[in-house]
Design a protein that fits this description.
The complex is a heterodimer of chains A (328) and B (343). Chain A is built from eleven helices and 14 strands. By secondary structure, chain A is of the alpha/beta class. Chain A has two domains: 182 residues, Thiamin diphosphate (ThDP)-binding fold, Pyr/PP domains (Rossmann fold, 3-Layer(aba) Sandwich), CATH 3.40.50.970; 129 residues, Rossmann fold. In chain A, strand 4, helix 4 and strand 5 form a beta-alpha-beta unit. Chain A is globular. With 343 residues, chain B is α/β, with parallel strands linked by helices. Chain B has a domain of 205 residues: Thiamin diphosphate (ThDP)-binding fold, Pyr/PP domains (Rossmann fold), CATH 3.40.50.970. Chain B is built from ten helices and eight strands. In chain B, helix 6 links the parallel strand 3 and strand 4. The longest helix of chain B has 26 residues.
C-alpha cells in the first residue's frame, strides 16, 4: 500500500494505461506544457511527448469532437475538461455523437472514449462553475457515468473506464485532488456498476458519492451516530450509470430506511431515480418515505454563507435522518 | 458498352488527364445511379414507404462522384451531413442496403436504426450521415488526427452545406485542423440555400472559401457541376494531404434541383421557378455525357443503355428493400452499449 493524493492516483491510471495501450492519448486544455490546470497530468508530457499528451485551444466542442472522431476509427482518447461545467459547450458532441453513435450506426461504429475532469462545487466559484452534472449525463442511453470518492477507487475505476469500449463520463472533484489515500501496490482495476458499502449499519442507509460522500456524509455520519445513537449504513455506488441498485435494495431490506445525499439539484436528480427503484423493489421493506438531501433548487450563489446554505451539509442530513427515523 | 467498343478514346486530352474511358463511364453511371435512386426515393416517400426527413441529392451528383468515387482510395474516410445517399453510393455502400434503411428494414445499413439522415458503413469507411448541422465537422478533424497519429497516408473527406459554415463547430474543427495540420478535406457543398435561407442572408462573408483564411487552410472554389474539375481539385488536395498532412477547404458551387426536404417545394417562397430552371441548364450528368460524346468515348446509344442498366439496379434495390424483414423486436435493446462485434 502506498499513500497518494487523488491527483496522483488519476495520474498513475493514465500513465499505466498509456504504457499498456499505444492507442490511448490525453487531450485537453493545459494538460501538457502547464502540467494540468490542477496538476493531474504532471510529468506526462515529459514522459510521453507531445504526440500523446496534447494541449488544445479553448474549444471544447472542437476537441471533444476530435476525440469522438478518433475513437470511431480506433484510438482510445482521454479528453480532459478543465471542469465539467465547460463540457456544456461540447454537449452535442457528448450526447449526440459519443452517446448515440453505436446505436444510430446500427453497431457499425463504437466510441471508446473517456471524458474526464472535475465537477460539482468547489468554493466561491459561482453558478456557472459549480454544477453537479451527473444526472444530466446519466439521462442519456449510451453513456456510463463514473464518480469516485477516494484515491483507490479513482485509479481503479479510471483504468477500467479507459479499457471500456463505451463513452465514459468520469467526474472528479476539484476539492478532492489533494485528498490523500491508500492505493494497492501493483496492477488493479475496479469494475463499473459495482458499489461499495463504506460502513455497515442497521438503522438506516445513506447513499452518496464523490466529494459529497467523502467530505460531507462520512463526517456527518460520525456526528449523527453519536448524537442520535443510531447505526448508519453508508453506500457509495461509485458509478452513477450503471447504478448498483441491488446493493442499495439489499441494504434497505436490512435497514428499512433510506436517505440519498447528492450535490445535484432535486428535479429529476440521481436521488429521484434511486428512490424510485428502491420504492419499486423494496416498498414493503420501507418503514419511512425515502428522503433526499440535494442542493437547493437555485443557481449556486457566491457568498460563503449562501453557498453553504445551498449545498448538502450536516444540518440538512440531520433533518433527513431524523425524519426517516421519526425522531422529533 | 458493346456497341461503343469500336469508338477509340482520344488520348491525353487536357480535360481528361490520365482517365480511362472505363473510369469516366463508371463516373457517369455513378451520377446517374444517384439521380435515379433519389427519384425513386421521392416516389417511395410519396407512397408513405419512407418516413421522417428525407433530403435528396438531385443536381449535386457531380460532387459525390468526383470527390469520392473519383479522387479517393477505398480506405480513405468520408463523413457527411444528412443529405447523404449520394455520398454513400459514391463511396461504394451497397445501394440495396441504403434503400432498405430508408424503408426501416433490418437489412438496412444500420439495421433500421438510423434512417435517411444516418447512413453508416464500416466496411467502406463511411462514417455517417449526421443530422445536427456542423456537429460532425469536429469528428472529421478527429479522424484526421487518428490518421496522423498512426502515420497513415489516408485522408478524410468532410462534406457540409453552406449553412454549416455559420455554426461554431465548423470554426473549432477548422482551427484544430489548421493548427495541427490534419489530413482533412473540408468540402462545402454550397447549394446557395440553408433550407430556405440564402447565403447572403446568413453569412457575413459570402465567399465561403474565405473562411479558411482565418485558420491558415488553403482553399479554392470549384465548379460543382463539372465532375472533372471536382475530381482534379479534390485529388490534388488529397495528394497534398497524404504527403504533408495539410488540410484543404473546397467550396464547391452546386445547386439542388429539388426542395430542401420532401416537404419543401422545388421553388416557391425562397427561390423562383426561373432560377431553378436556369440552373437545371447546367445539369452535371448531361454535361459529363456531352463531354464524353465530344471526346468520342460514347454515342447516344450509351445513354439509353446506361438508363436501362441503372433502372434495373434501382428496381433491384426496391425489390430487396420491400422484401426485407422489419427489425426483430429484440433489436430495440441492442447496440446501446458495445459488447464486441463477435469478430
Amino acid at each position: 500500500m502506498a499513500i497518494v493524493s487523488l491527483r496522483e492516483a488519476i495520474n498513475q491510471a493514465i500513465d499505466e494505461e498509456m504504457a499498456r495501450d499505444e492507442r490511448v492519448f490525453l487531450m485537453g486544455e493545459e494538460v501538457a506544457n502547464y502540467q494540468g490546470a490542477y496538476k493531474v497530468s504532471q510529468g506526462l508530457l515529459q514522459k510521453w511527448g507531445p504526440r500523446r499528451i496534447i494541449d488544445t485551444p479553448i474549444a471544447e466542442a472542437g476537441f471533444a469532437g476530435v476525440g469522438v472522431g478518433a475513437a470511431m476509427v480506433g484510438l482510445r482518447p482521454i479528453i480532459e475538461f478543465m471542469t465539467w461545467n465547460f463540457s456544456l459547450v461540447a454537449y452535442d458532441q457528448i450526447v449526440n455523437n459519443a452517446a448515440k453513435m453505436l446505436s444510430m450506426s446500427g453497431g457499425n461504429f463504437h466510441v471508446p472514449i473517456v471524458f474526464r475532469g472535475p465537477g460539482g462545487a468547489a468554493h466561491g466559484l459561482g453558478a456557472t462553475h459549480s454544477q453537479a452534472l451527473e444526472s444530466v449525463y446519466a439521462h442519456f442511453p449510451g453513456l456510463k457515468v463514473v464518480m469516485p470518492s477516494n484515491c483507490k477507487d479513482a485509479k481503479g475505476l479510471l483504468k477500467t473506464s479507459i479499457r471500456d469500449d463505451n463513452p465514459i463520463v468520469f467526474i472528479e472533484s476539484e476539492v478532492m485532488y489533494g485528498d490523500k489515500g491508500e492505493i494497492p501496490d501493483g496492477e488493479y482495476t475496479i469494475p463499473l456498476g459495482v458499489g461499495e458499502i463504506k460502513k455497515e449499519g442497521n438503522d438506516l442507509t445513506i447513499v452518496s458519492w464523490s466529494k459529497t460522500l467523502a467530505h460531507v456524509v462520512l463526517k456527518a455520519v460520525d456526528v449523527l451516530q453519536q448524537e442520535l445513537n443510531v447505526s448508519i449504513e453508508v453506500i457509495d455506488p461509485r458509478t452513477i450509470k450503471p447504478m448498483d441498485y441491488d446493493l442499495i435494495v439489499e441494504s434497505v431490506k436490512k435497514t428499512n430506511r433510506l436517505v440519498i445525499v447528492e450535490e445535484g439539484w432535486p428535479f429529476a436528480g440521481v436521488g429521484a431515480q434511486i428512490s424510485h427503484e428502491v420504492t419499486s423493489r423494496a416498498f414493503d421493506s420501507l418503514d419511512a418515505p425515502v428522503e433526499r438531501v440535494t442542493q437547493e433548487d437555485v443557481p449556486l450563489p457566491y457568498a460563503h454563507n449562501l453557498e453553504t446554505l445551498s449545498l448538502p451539509n450536516l444540518d440538512k442530513i440531520r433533518t433527513a435522518v431524523k425524519k426517516v427515523l421519526y425522531i422529533d | 458498352m458493346k456497341s461503343t467498343a469500336a469508338v477509340a478514346p482520344k488520348q491525353n486530352h487536357s480535360r481528361l488527364p490520365g482517365l480511362s474511358r472505363e473510369t469516366l463511364l463508371s463516373w457517369y453511371d455513378d451520377m446517374l445511379l444517384v439521380r435515379r435512386f433519389e427519384e425513386k426515393c421521392a416516389q417511395l416517400y410519396g407512397m408513405g414507404k419512407i418516413m421522417g426527413f428525407c433530403h435528396l441529392y438531385n443536381g449535386q451528383e457531380a460532387v459525390s462522384t468526383g470527390a469520392i468515387k473519383g479522387a479517393l482510395n477505398p480506405n480513405d474516410y468520408v463523413i457527411t451531413a444528412y443529405r447523404d445517399h449520394g455520398q454513400a453510393i459514391s463511396k461504394g455502400v451497397d445501394p440495396k442496403a441504403i434503400l432498405a434503411e430508408l424503408l426501416g428494414k433490418y437489412t438496412g445499413t444500420t439495421r433500421g436504426k438510423g434512417g435517411s439522415m444516418h447512413i453508416f458503413d464500416r466496411a467502406t469507411n463511411f462514417l455517417g450521415g449526421h443530422a445536427i448541422i456542423g456537429g460532425h465537422i469536429p469528428l472529421a478533424s478527429g479522424v484526421g488526427f487518428a490518421i496522423k497519429y498512426r502515420g497513415e497516408k489516408k485522408v478524410c473527406l468532410c462534406f457540409m452545406g453552406d449553412g454549416a459554415t455559420n455554426i461554431g463547430a465548423f470554426h473549432e474543427a477548422l482551427n484544430l485542423a489548421g493548427l495541427w495540420k490534419l489530413p482533412v478535406i473540408f468540402i462545402i457543398e454550397n447549394n446557395k440555400y440553408a433550407m430556405g435561407t440564402a447565403v447572403e442572408r446568413s453569412s457575413a462573408v459570402q465567399d465561403l472559401h474565405k473562411k479558411a483564411i482565418a485558420y491558415n487552410i488553403s482553399s479554392e472554389v470549384v465548379n460543382g457541376m463539372d465532375v472533372l474539375e471536382i475530381y482534379q481539385k479534390v485529388k490534388a488536395a488529397a495528394d497534398r494531404a497524404r504527403a504533408t498532412y495539410e488540410p484543404t477547404l473546397l467550396e464547391i458551387e452546386t445547386y439542388r434541383f429539388r426542395g430542401h426536404s420532401m416537404s419543401d417545394p422545388v421553388h416557391g417562397v425562397y427561390r423562383s421557378k426561373d432560377e431553378v430552371e436556369s440552373r437545371k441548364q447546367s445539369d452535371p450528368i448531361i454535361l459529363l455525357g456531352e463531354t464524353l460524346k465530344e471526346e468520342g468515348m460514347i454515342t447516344d446509344q450509351y445513354f439509353d443503355e446506361a438508363e436501362k442498366r441503372i433502372k434495373k439496379i434501382v428496381e433491384e434495390c426496391v425489390e430487396f428493400a420491400e422484401n426485407s424483414p422489419d427489425p426483430p423486436v429484440d433489436e430495440l435493446w441492442k447496440d446501446v452499449y458495445f459488447e464486441g462485434r463477435g469478430e
